[in-house]
DNA sequence: ACCATTAATGCACCAAAGACATCAATAGAC
DNA sequence: GTCTATTGATGTCTTTGGTGCATTAATGGT
């Protein structure tokens, strides 16, 4: 025989109003039903809580002791209910996402700005990690989801493509290649190429895509981050092949980009999340915001939305 | 739509065991019933709490946040339940009673001793007040009940007679009246009588009972407490008319008592309590103990139990 | 003494929750 | 790759418990 919240609430109401009839009315209940509810509670507790006359109701000694406890219980229930609803409705909470630097710089600021305006009480923990580390963060559960590039499919990871972007050549405006309409990968072998480290996701992608070429480009400089390589291009040390989105802006004072073809190498950016692990409502909202932004072409430089 | 304790408990069990089947078994419930219970809770809260696969169960982000709150809620319910049961079963608690000094000295010690042996955790607050003040304490609710003398019936007071005792004459063994078999009230006018103050219940009772006498005794000394008057008798200052129970003991080294007749004035001692106010279980037990003691003739000096 | 009001009770009814049987999905064994 | 066993969800019927209506008993006020 279990005692329940409704019984406690009934007791409180009767105790406050000192009347079964009034309390029943207040609880949208018939008076007999309320009588029985109280009766049941008393039988569960093993002691009367209310001293009833046919004319009036008052608390018994035990009832008087129980009253404050009961009130606190109901209050805590209400509080917990409110709390969880707020959590569910994104009025409070926190999301953690892991994304690659490109996304952190070019995708997310606008999305975060809008999301934060709409859900001002959701804190955002943004882990800007390399493609590998970001995937690890999602896998370990440290991040609820991530923005990453499509790579070898891990069995526990679901990838939702968002945008496909080509690799482009970046060079200084005064570089010989700057005036070419487009450049083939083979042509690059004649120039000093700035590449990223062997463990980079981009590097592995390129190595894989270009493996069939006879004239494979060889990297003259090797750095760890794309932003560094851009800096070196800026300094006139060479040229670089980078995803178009990692370019700071269309109108850069020194840098120009041109398509890299034969082959056209693209990378797919998208959302990664663990299979079988529901997102928090807050994260769900974030993804919604993200998709909305992307739908209205907020991401310049990509080759547009893809369908899948 | 109300959410209830059972649902919270169900959620906790599933979260702990990470299995609907195991939790259902533990709750003595069928697995489908448990599924529905959780489902309902989730629909009330408006958010999923558990991420179910056909093979495993885990907490959602919201569920993880809710879990500790839920646990605390259930714990507090359990605690409150335990508490109130303990109160009802007299394992803890306190009773307050107001009694006249006679009762405090001669009725209660034995009763309290037995009661305390049986219910060692009930604290007893004993207000030893005058008849008037004691009645006031009961009326105000400060005392749950009292032991008092029968007086003008207050409408809110119920009086349960316990014992009737006569007034007796107390004198020193060397006093002229000491050898009389009995003494009439009229005879007292020739002796120095020690009485109590005008507001004493005993005094009012006597004044009332003796109002028809032509030879009314007049008090030579007036004190406030019967015990004081006994002391004065002991000192040889006079004699006193006191209720028999207020006599310290049958075999007092100095004092002797003898019946006071014409008329035989009796006072009725009994329990007083407020009408329409239930006693706490602890107090109920106390009254039981009290009645048991009195039934087996534990009160010497009275003229025995009376029936009403 | 009567009336009005209050809580309790008898009874018929209905809704919510439960059990049973079954289905769909999936991890693990081979 | 296929099959099996196990897990949670769902459909359906049953049952229990709670509810409302009508009525009763008790009591304070007139």
UniProtKB/TrEMBL annotation, chains A, B:
UniProt-listed InterPro entries: HTH-type_LysR_regulators, LysR_HTH_N, LysR_subst-bd, WH-like_DNA-bd_sf, WH_DNA-bd_sf
Gene3D superfamilies with a match to the protein in the record: 3.40.190.290, Winged helix-like DNA-binding domain superfamily/Winged helix DNA-binding domain (1.10.10.10)
Entries under Pfam families matching the protein: HTH_1, LysR_substrate
CDD domains recorded: PBP2_LTTR_like_4 (cd08440)
PROSITE patterns the record matches: HTH_LYSR (PS50931)
The organism's place on the tree of life at top rank: Bacteria
Keyword line: DNA-binding, Transcription, Transcription regulation
Domain HTH lysR-type per the UniProt entry, residue ranges: 1-60
Coiled coil: none
This protein's name: LysR family transcriptional regulator
